[in-house]
Each structure stands twice: as C-alpha cells, then as structure tokens.
Amino acid sequence: MKITLVKKIFADGSLCKKCREVEDKMRATGQLSQIDRIVIADEADDQSEGMLLAAHYNIDRAPFFIVEHEGADPVIYTIYFKFVKEVLDAETSEEEELAEIINDNDLDFL
User: Fold this and answer.
1) Bridge partner list, 37
2) Please, which residues have CB within 8 angstroms of residue 78's CB and are 6 or more apart in sequence?
3) Domain count within the chain
4) CATH of the domain at 90
5) CB 56 within 8 A of CB 66
6) How far is CA 72 from CA 2, 5, 6, 15, 67, in A?
7) 3-class SS of residue 9
8) pTM to 2 decimals?
9) pLDDT tens digits for 28-66?
10) How far apart, in whole angstroms, are the C-alpha atoms of residue 81 and residue 84?
C-alpha cells in the first residue's frame, strides 16, 4: 500500500488551515510516519504536482489522501477521520467524525 497526502499552500506561501490541523493530528498520533509521500498543491502554480493530482482525480478540496494498492484503482479520501478509520485502522470517535463532517465547509478548495 502506498499513501500520498496532498496538502494545499496558498499563493502567499501559507498552509491551508485544515491541512495544518490534519498534519498536526497525524504528527501527534504518530500516523504521519505511515504516509509515503506528501505532495503540495500550490495555489500559485496550477502545474504543481498536487494541483495536477487534484485535477486528475477531480478533487476540489484539501487536504486529501490517495491510497494505492497494487493492482487496484487508487482510493481517494477527503475526510481525515474516514481515512484514519478505514486505512490506518485507528480508533475514532463518532463525535470526532461528525464534527469533521459538519466542519467540512472549512476545507480549502483547490
């Protein structure tokens, strides 16, 4: 399995709020070590790898995860807690999952 995290950087060079929050959660729980690649979707460069991946997979928000298993189509996750639960087999609370879904509007669009 190969996991890619795509996070967004604004034109001014700052990291999107949700991307920063997700990365902080992953670092605090030790999950960041399970990510094989971190790719940047640079708002100032529509040809950056992250922007190209977002266009390829028709994703319009950040952060998102691309999970690849050999011989299968990649699976895209735009909800952190769903990714954690389904891919990393980590425990999440229903309250955390609902809070993220409700705050889904806080995601930064690419």
Assistant:
1) 4
2) 59, 61, 64, 65, 107
3) 1
4) 3.40.30
5) no
6) 12, 18, 20, 31, 10
7) strand
8) 0.82
9) 999 999 999 999 999 999 999 999 999 999 999 999 999
10) 5
